[in-house]
Batch of 2 targets.
Target 1
Amino acid sequence: MSSRIRICTKEDSRVLAETIRKSFRDIAERFGLTQENAPRHPSNCTMDWIRKDMERGVTYFAIENKNHIIGCVAFERANSEVCYLERLAVLPGYRRRGFGKALVERAVSEAKHLGVNYVSIGIIAEHTELKDWYKRLGFVEGESKEFPLLPFCVTVMSYEIGKSCQQCAPPDVVERVSDLCR
Ligand SMILES: CC(C)(COP(=O)(O)OP(=O)(O)OC[C@H]1O[C@@H](n2cnc3c(N)ncnc32)[C@H](O)[C@@H]1OP(=O)(O)O)[C@@H](O)C(=O)NCCC(=O)NCCS
């Protein structure tokens, strides 16, 4: 598989925003999310969001297939205990081939490197297939909450670092071999 994961720069902002918008479109349609009722949903992502994220220290990882970005994930250190995984996206035409899993594993590997204890992600509470997928990757379901300006309930899923090594990515999709099994 000619794919690799790399850290993005501001030059990638336009392609990242497009990738995120296109990847979240089906979710927006399924849950009835629009610019009006959910302006901060990733289906409305702009270059400006990505740039501002990067300025405040968020790292974007992109997965490339034949040198084209086909998916990404944002990774943010919230505090000494927790990192957040956000905007996980794989373009519809490239799904169910392990790219999403590889991105999650890359973020978990980074969290291990930083020495935090948890990686957390907020998902739409009713998105049961996604919830089950995160569980298969080793995440545990936490509390569900409502937030102002969001027309859906959010469930927090968390991965505890150091529990096992089974989430390690295959060598052809990680950025460096040293990222394995950290
Ligand atoms: C979630 C996502 C990143 C997975 O990417 P991917 O490259 O297909 O992931 P993988 O190939 O590693 O795993 C595929 C799994 O996704 C799961 N999945 C998650 N959401 C799904 C959905 N809406 N429909 C079907 N399968 C879904 C399936 O269970 C599938 O597992 P299976 O093939 O073993 O049945 C991709 O579906 C996506 O971009 N979705 C839209 C945006 C989104 O919901 N992002 C997550 C926000 S927290």
Target 2
Amino acid sequence: MKTPKAKAGSRSFRSPQTTPSAIPKTANFSKIAIDLAEIGKGFYARGWVLGTSGNFSAVVSREPLRLAITSTGVDKGILTPAHFLEMDNAANVVRGDGRPSAEALLHLAIVRGVGAGAVLHTHSVWSTVLSGSHASQGGIALEGFEMLKGLEGVRTHKHREWLPILENSQDMIELGERVSRTLRESPGIHSGAGRT
Ligand SMILES: [Zn+2]
């Protein structure tokens, strides 16, 4: 499940994308890797990514599409910038060692679907429990919370944020297509949820 906090994190990566030509690509990737490693360690400390679970990415460039993303199998408690690699729009590694998670295709689907600047995929106990208990309804509604005003364009706690829940699959191409379709059918969505 992506939380509103994850979306807030994504916004901080948007500004470099407004002037991509003014920023050396290497410096941009390095800065993103440093920031994501810091965010990841914070997530680990909060119990949002246990062990090697979860993965983080951020857009390095839109044209061509390049993402910095955690390499697979890294314990998030010891995450460093060296654990990030750069991949292209088909999840091929173009910089760094290791390979991206199978879920990399979902990161690409979300970045394409909502123009996200970053995708912070967690595995918290709370989101797992909530996803399980609300799966039969196809999603969970968040409303009445003051913190909803942290979402872009939301001015009141009365806002109702619908987080779709998608059944997990080991077929990432099929799951990625379902993520893309869900995002298309939910215009205005701030974030997505999944049971991956
Ligand atoms: Zn996962």
